[in-house]
């Protein structure tokens, strides 16, 4: 008999975990969403249809998974905790609409993954930002994602130029998705209660731009320009130019001389119509795309 789990009650979850000899591991950011209404709202926000393919990150004991399967999704789920994996297999192992990928999602994402269009994750705080950044940089895009994440990380994902929360992650997220807040979740919505608020965000793949066609340099350039926040764009950009490996005009060691680096940096900024004294946190997505496009035009002629 598959276990019966009451996902709405912290008391019953605690007893279930005890009976099963399972503990909660802080290092995996384990907090179960016990708020049934919030779970329904998250499922609604995904707007998938019966038969649609969907990734779930960190199903835990399956609070969201049950709703996904009930609504007819074909679920591929990543879970790292061996105890939860055992329970998930007892619940849905052998079903055709549930595939479990065991281990760390940062390492187990399948190559040639079949391209499921939706992604759901009540994301462990420990990996949320890294995972989203990596998926975007690898140009692994989804039609829609609904992510629940620490509120502070959500602020960084949604911040615009000029805000103290604006980081390379904000630019990456905006480069591929339109992001809307769905709901703020208080600690009491979870068992065990975390110390901070969480935020549910809905990400829709942009249709006004084609993120898969961005210049190859775009992602590394964005990261590089934010690498030293206090430095000007000119200084961070010259570091990036110096790190470029290919092209002409190399010295004996294969590097570019300081003078040439300065020249290229100035030319790229001029052609992008950007003042060298600006800082990355004031640049818009369009500024970054222009810079990356100009740099790409220079490729092979450094
Ligand atoms: N989805 C469940 C819910 O909403 O109640 C549990 C969410 S809990 C915040 C995060 C889940 O992600 C846990 O089950 C945890 O074991 C899993 N997890 C943490 N790090 C992971 C990783 N690197 N790869 C795969 N799963 C991970």
What can you see in these coordinates?
By secondary structure, the protein is an alpha/beta fold. The chain has two domains: 10-209, Vaccinia Virus protein VP39 (Rossmann fold, 3-Layer(aba) Sandwich); 218-298, Orthogonal Bundle (Helicase, Ruva Protein, domain 3). It contains twelve helices and nine strands. It has helices at 10-19, 36-46, 63-70, 82-92, 105-108, 128-137, 151-158, 168-176, 218-225, 233-243, 258-271, 285-298; strands at residues 32-33, 53-57, 74-79, 98-102, 118-122, 144-150, 177-185, 190-191, 198-205. The longest helix has 14 residues, at 258-271. The radius of gyration is 22 Å and the shape is elongated. The termini are far apart. 35% of the residues are buried. It binds S-adenosylmethionine (SAM). S-adenosylmethionine (SAM) is lined by residues 28-33, 58-60, 63-64, 78-81, 84, 104-106, 122, 124, 127.
What is the name of the CATH topology of the largest domain? Rossmann fold
Round the mean pLDDT to the nearest integer and report it: 91
Structural class: alpha/beta
How would you name the CATH homologous superfamily of the largest domain? Vaccinia Virus protein VP39
Radius of gyration: 22 Å
Strand content: 15-25%
Secondary structure tally, helices? 12
Which architecture of the largest domain does the CATH hierarchy give at level 2?
3-Layer(aba) Sandwich
Helix proportion range: 25-40%
Major sheet, described briefly?
7 strands, mixed
DSSP strand count: 9
Secondary-structure element order, as H and E? Answer: HEHEHEHEHEHEHHEEEHHHH
Give the total of domains. Answer: 2
Categorize the overall geometry: elongated
């Amino acid at each position: 008999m598959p276990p019966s789990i009451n996902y709405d009650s912290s008391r019953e979850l605690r007893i279930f975990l005890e009976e099963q000899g399972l503990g909660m591991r802080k290092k995996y950011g384990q907090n179960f969403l016990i708020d049934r209404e919030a779970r329904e709202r998250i499922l609604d926000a995904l707007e998938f249809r019966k038969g649609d393919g969907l990734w779930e990150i960190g199903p835990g004991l399956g609070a969201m998974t049950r709703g996904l399967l009930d609504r007819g999704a074909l679920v591929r789920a990543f879970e790292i905790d061996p105890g939860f994996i055992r329970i998930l297999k007892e619940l849905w192992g052998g079903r055709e609409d549930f595939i479990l990928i065991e281990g760390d999602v940062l390492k187990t994402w399948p190559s040639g993954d079949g391209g499921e269009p939706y992604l759901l994750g009540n994301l462990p705080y420990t990996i949320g930002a890294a995972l989203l950044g990596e998926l975007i940089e690898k140009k692994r895009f989804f039609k829609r994602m609904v992510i629940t994440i620490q509120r502070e990380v959500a602020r960084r994902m949604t911040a615009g130029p000029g805000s103290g929360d604006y980081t390379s992650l904000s630019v990456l997220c905006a480069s591929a998705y339109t992001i809307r807040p769905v709901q703020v979740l208080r600690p009491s919505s979870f068992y065990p209660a975390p110390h901070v608020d969480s935020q549910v965000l809905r990400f829709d793949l942009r249709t006004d731009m084609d993120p898969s066609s961005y210049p190859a340099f775009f992602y590394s350039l964005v990261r590089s320009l934010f690498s030293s926040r206090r430095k000007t764009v000119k200084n961070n950009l010259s570091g990036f130019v110096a790190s470029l490996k290919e092209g002409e005009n190399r010295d004996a060691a294969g590097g570019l001389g300081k003078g040439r680096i300065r020249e290229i940096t100035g030319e790229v900024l001029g052609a992008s119509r950007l003042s060298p004294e600006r800082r990355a946190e004031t640049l818009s997505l369009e500024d970054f795309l222009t810079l990356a496009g100009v740099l790409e035009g220079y490729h092979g002629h450094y």
